[in-house]
Amino acid sequence: MAKSIGKVRSHLVQNEKLLFELSTPGKVGYQLPALDVPEVAPEKALGGGQVRTEIEDFPEVSEVEVIRHFTRLSTWNYGIDLGLFPLGSCTMKYNPRINEAVARAEGLAWAHPYQPESLSQGAMEIIAVLERHLAEIFGHDAVTLQPAAGAHGEYTGIMLVRAYLESQGNPRKKVIVPDSAHGTNPATAIIAGYDVVTVKSNEHGMVDPAALAMAVDEDVAAMMITNPNTVGVFEENIVKICGILHAKGAQAYMDGANLNALVGIARPGDFGIDVLHSNLHKTFSTPHGGGGPGAGAVGVKAHLEPFLPEPRLKQAGEQWTWDYDRPQSIGRVRAYYGNFGVLVRALAYIMAHGGPGLKNATIDALLNANYIRARLKDRFKIAYDAPSMHECVFEDSVQEKQGARTGDIAKRLIDYGFHPYTVSFPLIVHGALMIEPTETEPKAELDAFCDALLAIASEVESNPETVKQAPEMTRTSRVDEVTAARKPVVRWKPVPR
Amino acid sequence: MLQACGLGSLDELYGHLPAEALLGRPLNIPAGVSEYEIGEYFKEQAGRNANGYASFLGAGVYAHFRPVLCDVVASRGEFLTSYTPYQAEMAQGTLTTIFEFQTMVCQLTGMEVANASMYDGSTAVPEAAMMASRVTGRQGFLAAANLHPEYRQVLDTAARNARMHVEGFGYDAETGRADLKALEGKISAETACVILQSPNFFGIVEDVKAAADLAHKHGALLVVVVAEAVSLGLMEPPRDADIVAGELQSFAISPSYGGPFAGIIATKEKYIRQIPGRLVGETKDADGNRAYCLTLSTREQHIRREKATSNICTNQALIALMATVFMSVYGKQGLRELAGQNLSKAHYLADGLDLRFKGPFFNEFVARPRGRTPEEANAALLDKKIIGGLPLGRFFPELKDSMLICATEMSKRADMDAVKETL
Predict the structure, then answer these.
(1) Predicted local confidence at residue A5, as pLDDT
(2) Domains of chain A, with CATH numbers?
């Protein structure tokens, strides 16, 4: 492979044992202040049977060993700070560091959820302002910030639908989900107590209004729709789709995973969506952190507002107060008030951009995705001809003829120093390559990424085995996931002496 | 770039959207501001919260010292800005730390397997209950009245929507422990699990073994909830439980007005395929070297869709990483000493106060202020820049004369003396 193509390759560290294997009996890495009160004997205070002898096999390492261990492990990782992270539907944009700094301000980081409201006004104000800005962005009347993640927001949203319909006399039985939907959608509908009805996408990758009209009856509580959908295409009939649902008394739920394509341009509330969740760790730049924490804001139209999780913020004179007197509320979905630290970061992002900046970011996200599409479309088959929004989805049908599938191309991309795109999703695309660059990528980075994929397309023609054996430049070669699942080993155990 | 896309203007990028869907006006959000101004705004808001107060609040959120290394490691871009480790060859760092996390959670709780984390303690409870329902094929849950009231509310919400049934059982008014006689009267062949918190919401250590025996006699599982993880440094782990659901906020996670935190679910090996959420497993790469990857994903929503064990997708990897660093820094000796300091400080604080319950407690307890209400006592303490305990009337009307008070290794003797004087 040409060394001039690609970015971040090497793993600095090759060998690092697990903490347990690094331990030496008696070694410590901490120091506590001297106890300024009389020491209490645990056996006396708790009763002998309640005191453990020791935490068997727990680590015993020094401070320098701790930092070296985790720093070494960090070199086996890849993050946005190293380069493009084009996971479709995941919106891996740059995470501004001012967000991290402000979330650590002492008065915010050390605020206890039960401290007096009079000493929590700053935290409450932050929540109130973020709710207001998100309501404006969504086109909704109210927003709850209690859900801890996107899937948790979905769950909250569907429970709101159930509570609303129950108040109308009938919670109904079914939730409609397109076959292109994220897996969380059907899983959510089930745990919220609904049966799932899947509708097929049409030849443009969109929901077909005629087919939908056939599926919607008086038993349908809601449809969960993603817009732009998971093939990166705006549902051109969205207004009609919401109309079909509403005509039968059903609710329109939108999965806002792809909201990064719409902010400042189009508002779900305006095109008929009753309830929406938005992943603040996607559109609003809070870091993914290797899989969380996130936050799943949920926006609703006024008719759903009485059912939002309790408590709700309320103004009492000059002060904010938490209102627990919410008789129609679905109840709590999480203790306290949500992932507050994530909310702080999201508000910092919105403030940095402002209204005009948010719209510009959206346009740049669309431009970057369309640029990648234009550069790759001659070598990779685009899944659907409809215009792309913030991501573009190809299929691997050309490369498959040489035996290389989307998963192989993804692994080869690692050799070129980029994180792969989303592999094999959505399921309706044959061997999907789902690419979302986000607005924060400079053109040079997009070009380097496209050069790498084009080089791989050539390798597939000339030397498919290289692609099928990839990666070769990483610390570990291809990891055997099948064996891991067959004989699960999910914790370290000492080797028997 | 526009030219490469075959477009004449930026507006054409979304020109195909139906006109009725377009916003057609600027967002009503003020124009962007500089990094400096953002910093000033949040400094101002932080200044309107409590600053410079000593606090004796616990109740599920504990003020423990955060070793500097926790933020140093979690701030590394390779961890902070990475994604869920689907591409194992590019995420061995995250995968290895999660494997260590799962191992340490097992060592702490006395369980055999643990997942990669849940959102928090409150959401781990319904996930554990649903798991018990899958294992037993039953739909009823019995929750101790001294379970964290907000955890109970989250459980109620989830159960109602899943068409399952939660019933409470009381606590002993003298000891503050769960009333196992009351439990015995309610447990039946419909009970999927008994849910017991230890130390419970009143800070009191429960008799896990007795509750387990009772649950098992009726074919139900025992779910033990641990909200104060530091207690596990000293206390016998709930080995007799079938599932441990808990909160790791105590391990280097700042209170942050209630989140983000990290929950745990740990259980016996035989239930591994019923665990919700992510699991990391050990395997080998193509060259036979040890490697890690996400595993048993056939339980999960992105593969199983409507047949998944849970809809959970995102977990709390970065928070779990901080907790992992915390556990590494303190280690075997440190966690015990830390727990010992908490125990000693809380008992110093409690000495001479009017304790509501007689059961053994770890680092928090229920006390009745003498001659004034909890609210009046707290108001007097606020004048001394001390945030007192949590008045319990809002959750337990029968305890409206009492407050829940917590001491940790960060509680200073002088502040504790001021509290003792006021109560």
Answers:
(1) 77
(2) 19-74 (no CATH), 98-352 (3.40.640.10), 356-483 (3.90.1150.10)
